[in-house]
């Protein structure tokens, strides 16, 4: 197998994705990791150089200078890590809403770096000393990551994985600590780049779903001159399908960012059909290119989101990745 010399950065490896389930799998052969409320980042390191890519392959290095400690932490070895970028709240829990403020700032200002430091949680090792090890079992890759032990308080932390506990008990630990859920991983599984694999199974404690923004309705009161609710869609077998609207969960800053982002995307007619008249009345339509995420209670019988709340933009996702159940 070809080895890369120090300084020669390995190429981007699309991250392996988990399938969703209402309950984590039971029985032997599974290891559990907690589900972190952040964004995926695949980071390559070689010598004194490093580069970070988002889930969809975009170079995001300029937005997260905290990762510059990695070359020193791994003593210049040639490797690729898979993990999650997070911002912690006052209670030490990852908060996607806080991370939102860092996602569009490249480079971030000194004040923003001080107020909202980003941590990297590497949970898998894909290249070690220049050799690709994606074909090795998860247990071996995780052991190699633990031995490598890249750690810098407040910058890089290898998160725990849990073995030997029942799945429901691990999920209850996540619930008690206010985490997003758990990801079960088969200990014997290889890493499957770019594939959503049944070897990884995610169970969320709060239902979340990516959405495509297709329009917005003006608000009332102090929101009368701006966005009151977003109109949402997802990709079905016959194209875009209306999924409902969301009018809660926004901060003033989020609304300002959305207004600036959507203003140049206006179009004269909706990009999705069969929007109920009461929701379409007074709406401003936009090109279906902006992806966000909502949390919600459940799906209605006609495929709409019930009690949705906005979580934030997802620039790491492409519109064609957003599907409907």
TrEMBL record:
NCBIfam families: NHEJ_ligase_lig. Belongs to the ATP-dependent DNA ligase family. InterPro entries: ATP-dep_DNA_ligase (IPR050191), DNA_ligase_ATP-dep_C (IPR012309), DNA_ligase_ATP-dep_cent (IPR012310), LigD_ligase_dom (IPR014146), NA-bd_OB-fold (IPR012340). It holds the Pfam family DNA_ligase_A_C. GO terms for biological process: DNA recombination; DNA repair. This is DNA ligase (ATP). One of its GO terms (molecular function) is ATP binding. It catalyses: ATP + (deoxyribonucleotide)n-3'-hydroxyl + 5'-phospho-(deoxyribonucleotide)m = (deoxyribonucleotide)n+m + AMP + diphosphate. Keywords: Ligase. Residues 115-236 form the ATP-dependent DNA ligase family profile domain. Its EC number is 6.5.1.1.
């Amino acid at each position: 197998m070809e080895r890369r010399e120090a300084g020669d950065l390995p190429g981007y490896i699309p991250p392996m994705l988990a399938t969703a389930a209402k309950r984590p799998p039971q029985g032997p052969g599974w290891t559990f990791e907690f589900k972190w409320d952040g964004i995926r980042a695949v980071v390559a390191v070689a010598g004194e150089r490093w580069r970070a890519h988002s889930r969809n392959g975009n170079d995001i290095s300029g937005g997260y200078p905290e990762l510059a400690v990695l070359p020193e932490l791994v003593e210049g070895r040639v490797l690729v890590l898979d993990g999650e970028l997070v911002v912690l709240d006052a209670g030490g829990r990852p908060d996607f809403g806080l991370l939102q403020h860092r996602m569009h700032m490249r480079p971030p200002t000194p004040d923003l770096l001080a107020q909202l430091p980003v941590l990297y949680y590497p949970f898998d090792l894909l290249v070690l000393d220049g050799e690709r090890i994606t074909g090795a079992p998860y247990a071996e890759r995780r052991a190699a990551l633990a031995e490598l032990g890249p750690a810098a308080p407040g910058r890089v932390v290898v998160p725990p994985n849990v073995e030997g506990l029942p799945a429901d008990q691990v999920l209850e630990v996540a619930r008690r600590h206010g985490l997003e859920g758990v990801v079960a991983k088969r200990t014997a599984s290889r890493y499957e780049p770019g594939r959503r694999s049944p070897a990884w199974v995610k169970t969320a404690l709060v239902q979340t779903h990516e959405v495509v923004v297709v329009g917005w309705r003006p608000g009332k009161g102090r929101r009368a001159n701006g966005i009151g609710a977003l109109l949402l869609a997802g990709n079905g077998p016959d194209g875009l399908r209306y999924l409902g609207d969301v009018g809660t969960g926004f901060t003033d800053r989020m609304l300002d960012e959305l207004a600036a982002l959507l203003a140049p995307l206006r179009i004269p007619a909706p990009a999705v059909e069969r929007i109920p008249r009461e929701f379409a009345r007074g709406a401003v339509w936009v090109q279906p290119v902006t992806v966000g995420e909502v949390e919600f209670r459940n799906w209605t019988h006609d495929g709409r989101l019930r009690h949705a709340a906005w979580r934030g933009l997802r620039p790491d996702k492409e519109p064609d990745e957003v599907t409907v159940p």
